[in-house]
Write a structure and sequence with these properties.
CATH architecture of the largest domain: 2-Layer Sandwich
CATH class of the largest domain: Alpha Beta
Number of domains: 3
Structural class: alpha/beta
Distance between the termini: 49 Å
Number of helices: 13
Strand content: 15-25%
Mean pLDDT: 75
CATH superfamily of the largest domain: Dynein light chain 2a, cytoplasmic
Strand order of the largest sheet: 10-13-14-15-11-12
Radius of gyration: 23 Å
Number of strands: 15
Order of helices and strands: EHEHEHEHEHHEEEHEHHEHHEEHEEEH
Low-confidence stretches: 94-98, 122-129, 225-279
Shape: globular
Helix content: 25-40%
């Protein structure tokens, strides 16, 4: 019999869940705890197959509990109950990926569905073992103040957060940004969280997203894995939906061909010609943040952002109307392949250009990004670092 541990300090809420789960007692049993300390004691004494936890609790909160689970019970799936209450927070939490989450007030039917899927084992949407990058993003989202001790083998580092902002980091021989890059590149980490931070001065100016991106790149370098090799792409969690060799294709001729692009299926939005007048989005702070990130990344030589209907939003290179149409077309084709093949959500599309560089196409909900990167750049690392921001950009 599977056993679900529910952790929440609201006794009436726990009782209501117990009562509601009675009709599922042939599928899983329920154990409750009122805080993280009680939950840890239960985990030491009994076999638990899934943990459902609130974040805000006395004594030992949900963050510390999730950190404990990552270190001592990485095989147990976790569902986090949130009360963020805003669409932006909800969307950000979705992008973390390693956690299943459900927002309070709880929709009981959705909760049951998530629990049953989690108990299946490695079902879609669950990752057994909480990744460090996911945990750090959760701290940022909840504006958490804490000190994080991270261990990986013989290595140990510390990260200091104040209201969700990473102020500083250190390892045995590194401090500040370099230490943060090093820590986030470690694998198989154990996390210990203390709900205080003795740092007051910010020694790190880079965003957490950029630090995670750089850490992922360094991890790839350690693995000595070629990003363009078939073996590397097969092993990557971010395997591209499409990787096309364009050595025999003149891209300029293709983009200026008088033949119309093949129409997308009726279920996908139709491509329109790019606008000759680029609309102003200078007042969109999230978009400007994303453009700044792209400009600060030496891995990206040129980039163009287009709307889902093919209009250019921003480009650091002139004369990209046809490129915009091509990138939009690639995003549509990727969606069609995704639907036809029944694959998961599209991660990125990678194409090899005649110049020898790669064209990386990332799709957000309203914006598509075309990025020219070198062949030594790991596309999965770039996609992982940029996707959380890209997916949140709205043009409304």
């Amino acid at each position: 019999m599977n056993t679900v541990l529910i952790v929440d300090d609201d006794e009436s809420f726990l009782l209501s869940l117990i009562d509601g789960f009675k009709s599922y007692e042939d599928q899983f049993g329920i154990i409750t705890a009122h805080n993280g300390e009680e939950a840890v004691a239960v985990l030491e004494e009994q076999d638990i197959h899934l943990v459902l936890t609130d974040l805000k609790m006395p004594k030992m909160d949900g963050f510390a509990l999730v950190a404990h689970l990552s270190s001592h019970h990485p095989e147990i799936p976790v569902i986090v109950m949130t009360a963020f209450g805003t669409p932006d927070m909800e969307e950000n939490l979705k992008e973390i990926g390693a956690f299943q989450y459900i927002e309070k007030p709880i929709d009981f039917n959705i909760l049951v569905e998530k629990i049953l899927k989690g108990l299946e084992g490695r079902s879609k949407g669950f990752i057994t073992g909480v990744s460090l990058s996911s945990f750090l993003q959760l701290l940022e989202l909840d504006k958490k103040t804490c000190t994080l001790t991270v261990r990986s083998g013989k290595h140990q580092g510390t990260m200091y957060f104040k209201n969700g902002e990473l102020l500083d980091a250190d390892t045995d021989d590194l401090t500040g940004t370099d230490a943060a890059f090093e820590i986030v590149s470690w694998k198989n980490v154990a996390i210990v969280l203390a709900n205080s931070c003795n740092k007051t001065e910010a020694k790190i100016s880079d965003s957490l997203g950029f630090i995670l991106l750089e850490g992922s790149r360094r991890q790839d370098e350690r693995d000595d894995t070629s990003p363009t090799s078939p073996a590397a792409q097969a092993e990557s969690d971010d395997t591209p939906l499409a990787s096309t060799d364009l050595d025999d294709l003149d891209l300029d001729d293709f983009l200026n061909d008088e033949e119309p692009l093949p129409p997308p299926s009726p279920t996908v939005a139709t491509i329109t010609a790019p606008s000759t007048t680029t609309p102003s989005h200078s007042s969109n702070p999230l978009l400007q943040q994303f453009i700044t990130m792209l400009g600060a990344m030496p891995e990206i030589s040129t980039f163009i952002l287009v709307s889902r209907d093919g209009n250019i939003i921003h480009s650091n290179k002139a004369g990209d109307d046809q490129i915009a149409n091509f990138i939009t077309y690639i995003s549509v084709v990727g969606q069609q392949l995704q639907t036809t093949m029944g694959t998961g959500e599209q991660q990125y599309t990678l194409l090899t250009l005649k110049s020898g560089n790669n064209l990386l196409v990332l799709c957000g909900k309203e914006v598509v990004a075309g990025l020219e990167i070198g062949t030594t750049v790991a596309p999965g690392a770039v996609a992982t670092g940029l996707r959380p921001v890209l997916s949140r950009i709205s043009l409304q």
